[in-house]
């Protein structure tokens, strides 16, 4: 059973930074894609950033470009999302997800195969 576990959410002041972590267990595929999605209250879930594991390619939503960075600790099957210069509009539940395959672009959330339970990020002004 694949487990996806996020950590690192919390309350942050606008303009600050926060780092989210995502660990995947019992995963044996050589190439897969993992990343972050978020869902604000009353809105649809949207992609933030994904990274390929075992292959090249990272993809960001326009809202994340220049402010967020996704990175990978391959040995520990852990991905990180570093958020900088956050604003109240970044307040959301952030979910980590895994796609059993390669990402050629930022996928829609319905394409992802496994999900974590989410971690809440609240940005105060």
Summarize the structure.
With 125 residues, this protein is mostly beta strands. The chain has no helices and eleven strands.
Mean pLDDT across all residues, rounded? Answer: 95
Number of helices: 0
Sheet of most strands: 7 strands, mixed
Measured as a percent range, the helix fraction is under 10%
Q: Regarding quaternary structure, how should these chains be classified?
A: single chain
Structural class: mainly beta
Order of helices and strands: EEEEEEEEEEE
- What does the radius of gyration come to? 13 Å
Strand content: over 45%
Poorly predicted runs: none
Distance between the termini: 40 Å
Distinctive features:
globular; 7-stranded mixed beta sheet; 125 residues; mainly beta
Describe this structure in words.
The protein has 125 residues and is mainly β. It is built from no helices and eleven strands. The strands form two sheets. Strands 2, 4, 5, 6, 9, 10 and 11 form a seven-stranded mixed beta sheet that branches. A four-stranded antiparallel beta sheet has the order 1-3-8-7, with no helix packed on it. The protein is globular and about 40 Å long. The mean pLDDT is 95.
């Amino acid at each position: 059973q694949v487990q996806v576990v996020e950590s690192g959410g919390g309350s942050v002041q606008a303009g600050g930074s926060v780092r989210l972590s995502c660990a995947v267990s019992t995963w044996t595929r050589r190439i897969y894609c993992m990343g972050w999605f978020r869902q604000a209250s009353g809105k649809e879930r949207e992609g933030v950033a994904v990274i390929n594991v075992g292959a090249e390619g990272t993809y960001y939503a326009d809202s994340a470009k220049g402010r967020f960075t996704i990175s990978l600790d391959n040995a520990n099957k852990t991905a990180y999302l570093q958020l900088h210069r956050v604003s109240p509009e970044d307040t959301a539940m952030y979910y980590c997800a895994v796609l059993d395959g390669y990402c050629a672009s930022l996928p829609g959330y319905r394409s992802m195969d496994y999900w974590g339970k989410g971690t809440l990020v609240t940005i105060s002004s």
